[in-house]
Request: fold
Amino acid sequence: MDFFTIVQIFDSGLRLAIPLLFACLAGLFSERAGIFDIGLEGKILVSAFFAAAVAAMTGSVWLGLLAGVAGSLAFSAVHGVASITFQGNQLISGVALNFLASGLTVLVGEAWFALGGRTPSLFGKGRFTNIDLPFSITKADAEAAGLPLSKMLEQANPIQQVYTELISGHTILVYVGLLLVPLSWFVLYRTRFGLRLRAVGENPAAVDTAGISVIGLRYSAMAIAGTLCGLAGVYLATGLGAGFVKEMSAGRGFIALAALIFAKWKPVPALGATFLFGLLEAIANRYQSIDLGGFVIPVQFMQALPYILTVVILAGFVGKAVGPKAGGVPYVKER
Amino acid sequence: MEKMPKWADVALIPFLNLLIAFVLSGLVILAIGENPVKALQMMISGALGSTYGWGYTLYYATNFIFTGLAVSIAFKAAMFNIGGEGQAMVGGLGVALVCLYIPFPHWSVAILFAMIGGAVFGAAWAAIPAYLQAKRGSHVVITTIMFNFIAASLLNYMLVNILRPKGEMNPQTAGFPDATHLPTLHEMLAPFGIAFSKSAPVNVSLFIALAACVVVYLLIWRSRLGYEIRSFGHSQEASVYAGISPVKITMIAMLLSGGLSGMMSINNTMGEAERLVLNSVEGAGFIGIAVALMGRNHPFGVLLAALLFGFLYQGGSELSLWTKIPRELVIVIQGLVILFTGALDNMVRKPVERVFIAAAKRRAS
Reply:
């Protein structure tokens, strides 16, 4: 395996990590405010569908983005009403929303496009295009040199390879996702809102006593989670893919949940965890099975690895993962 | 009076919850440009209008009774087992190994061993999340979700790399021997001169599912263990104070739950496919959640809810054959039922409670 292959795997790992990262940060804001969110999967799916559907109908990926985020926000609102206003079981609400998303996207997709649950393929302005950063090797450079782009990259020096392949050439959402990591950290740990949000997930009664609205804080967490999860779906359908296909979230919402536990509900480790899981997926995509000197790791093991790692972390054998204390408990004001 | 009468709690509120879920489902059908009344008629005639329809309805219901009972036992101990899907998958593996590698003289012996095989494998798959919950406090919801995915990978590996016979393209095992063929309802009713559809997959497992309802009822409401499970579910602190071991109850409830999910495979793997195929569970483990919530975690309620979902499943497939409404309609209904009977229960309960209390006050004064 040469250096350029490794760079390529990292590049594909990064692309696959971005939807996980958005969803993981969504879960982070929700769970830090004390609302369990196992409905990430459904929100990604709904957002991916509406983003692709509207982008296909209008030809504008930006309108698609708005539609996708709106769809995810609507689901987030239902989750909020069920778990905050009506003090229902947050896990059951999440499960219900996952099913709703999985059924509705196909039902509506079939009614709108009659393509067996798919949306039409997106092209041109219907997708997010890759951005070539300055000084990277572009298609134009390759044409000028009379070589195919891949060939030219192989011959470039390692720094240029990393820069062009890994750092440059992504859609705007990838950079937005990466910027959201320090931003989330700042909001959570350096603002008054963040302090209150974390407090409401640990001890809502104390927040209430201080005269701050628990309900208001939790609903704003739902809104942030809905928006971020929406971006995960938008990226999936219009950046990573070119249109919506049935069940395209493919368990990513649950891997994001796993990453959240892996990262112990913290934004910077969340980037590490999602990148690790993205990398695992990239490796599993590239190699069917990995031969370690006579011992073959089957591809199915690679696919199951994020889940196995999460169980190990949850079991507390490698550093205990303890979530926010008030997580999953509806807040009932004392009378 | 501080409380509602019992009938309102047991019948009225679930009825109102379901009504909202079904009205919304009707609106969804309307929104995609189809006629909900016609759709309902077509579902009824497709699922209940022939012995063929009934045969499929009861076949699906059999699956859902097992998974619904599984979810409710865990609920009784205040645990949410989302892992029914994975437990049923691994249970299928157990059933397949028993059927493939033990030479049985007769189906009646085979089904006993298959039940044990399915239950042991299903319970084993629930054992690790149960142990981690009991001993290390790892949330059982998250671990069972993770175990669903791990089960899918495990099954995929077993079917592609190990159990697939040479020359077979699809990831599936060889067909089970003839001696393990379970009698279908057609074969069972023929000696009595009752005609029943030959192609419907409903089989003797249905009666085992019905028996399971009775056994679960006796276990939960008429046994010491059941009492311990229920009191643990109501209040962990109080039951610990009463000398009930939380580790023991958590383990037992989850093992029973996983065992029941795994036992489902005598119906779909042994009874219908007669070989283990990929995705043989088809979401039945998840439907168990809706069934348990709708059936208020009572075996009789679970039976009724399983029949309703069997009807929806079969009716939904008929609908997708003759109209433009895809099968996924059932998943939407399932989601709405879980949402309104589970998460949004208070939305209906609180106002109804207020009405009853106000009425009682008026009578008193």
